Amino acid sequence: MALSVYRTIGDLYFRQSGWRPQPPGGWDKTGRIKLDRVPSATESGVVDFLGERIINSNVLPANFGAAYAASPVIMKYGGEESPNVIINGIPMGGNHRIPAVVGGDLTVTNYSLTCKLNGTTLPIGVWWPGVTLVLHEEYDIPVDVTNPTGAKYAHVIIEWWITGGSYITYTYKIECITPFDLGWYGSQMSQGLVVPAGSTLHLKIPDSVSYAVQQDITATGAITIDQSEWADPVTPVIPYTFETTVKTSGAPQYTFMQQLTGGLPRGEIDPVTGIHSMQVAWYRHTSKKMYVHAVEYVPPKTLCAGDTFTTTGQFGCRNGA
User: Fold this and answer.
1) For residue 231, what pLDDT is reported?
2) Are 129 and 122 in contact (CB under 8 A)?
3) What gap in Å lies between CA 224 and CA 217, rounded to an integer?
4) What angle do CA 69, 316, 228 make, to 5 degrees?
5) Helical (H) or strand (E) element with 64
6) Contact 57, 1 (CB under 8 A)
7) Residue 316 · residue 257 · CB < 8 Å
8) All domains of the chain, ordered by start, with CATH?
9) How many helices (H) and strands (E) does the chain have?
10) Mean pLDDT throughout 231-259?
11) In angstroms, rounded to a whole number, what is the distance separating the alpha carbons of residues 123 and 121?
């Protein structure tokens, strides 16, 4: 699939041609990414993925806006920021605030973002074809959120790569500056798929007990893939891939995939108790938002200055099953 990108002040749109070849004319997958937002009572300013939908492949660039707004298939609405970090028992980073209410203090400071297609900074207001779009985001997490210029708990570096393929690839890195207790470090959190009336939603998680074979979860609320779901509790193979599929009349329409791919210190086994510190691999809230746990320590693990964690993975909607 070919990639083209359009940047505005505050948003970026990508278009992947030929995502669904079915007539009439075929269908392209499109996505919107919120960026360059000024921090405010409702914005932290971090990159935020605002879902995926399809438009007809015959739509001209000049008519993209109207076609995007009138998309016949909205797969995800989005609202998917970079992962937060549980520092001393408090979610920090990403779009989180203290207190966690509108208008609370930001937990992100010294923010920077670059946005390049084929190595060139994207201009505003022009459709550009390319091979690889790279978003590079960095920020610090302050010790005292009321003093953002003071000491820092950690430095965070995030990169996303978007190509003509179905998935967005990412690398998250966190480096400890001031010692803190790490509870967990997530992966890209994601909203659930849109399930049209009359359709059903199905979940498959290889290396789990209950969902190794795809299961209908249309009427299911919260789901937790914890240690009871590890395929092998003695030498645990902790699930890495999580797939939700929308079906209509039994036929798969689109699948959203979340996957961790490498660099994963997913906890440790206590040599005395034999208890694995990784408690949860994946969690689906009743709101349908889905969280992949990349790193988890129960009890929390004390990090020292210079300690780093890096996780890699991918996510996105593909056509069919």
Assistant:
1) 81
2) no
3) 13
4) 130
5) helix 64-69
6) no
7) yes
8) 3-319 (2.70.98)
9) 1, 25
10) 90
11) 7
